[in-house]
Amino acid sequence: MPIDELWWPAIGALGLGIIGYFVPRVLGVGYDTISDILNATLALKLLIVVMLAKAIALVVSLGSGTSGGLLAPMFMSSAAMGGVFALVVDRIFPGAHLSAGAFALVAMGAVFGAALCVLLSVFWLGSIDRGIPTKTVTPPG
Fold it and tell me: pTM of this prediction?
């Protein structure tokens, strides 16, 4: 059953409304949720739900032809993905003591760089508080 293109935004709004009813954190820009993720105040299950729901909401929004933005949803999904990774590794290896906020920040930068097709030419290795000097690695050529 073909649907006229004029109905696509209404169907998308209905889909977003259903997602937002069950996961209200995915509605709007989400800077407060990103801040909570970076401060590592969200539980693992909530991070998984936010990551998946925001990604689905982004696809529904853009697929229906409405303007839903890309930057903030990408940041929220990738931050949640990084936090999930750190928390899962901490559960598998309790001695790892990974920072969910730090992994969320790195994931945000990595996904943003990938979305912009940025060549990562500088990697910062080490940590100042451990006395390991930082190294700059550039691609050959």
Answer: 0.76
Question: From CA 58, how far away is CA 90, in angstroms rounded?
Answer: 29
Helices (H), the chain: 8-22, 31-38, 44-63, 71-92, 100-115
Query: Average of pLDDT values for 25-50?
Result: 91
Residue 119: pLDDT above 90? no
Q: Which regions of 74-122 does DSSP assign to beta strands (E)?
A: none
pLDDT in tens, 62-82: 888 887 778 888 889 999 999
What is the Cα–Cα distance from 63 to 87, expressed in whole angstroms? 32
Which is nearest to 44 in space by CA: 97, 85, 99?
Answer: 85
Q: How far is CA 51 from CA 4, 56, 61, 72, 106, in A?
A: 31, 9, 15, 12, 15
Amino acid at 20: G
- Residue 97, CB half-sphere, CA atoms under 13 Å: how many? 1
CB neighbours of residue 82 within 10 Å? 28
Is the pLDDT higher at 113 or at 57? 57
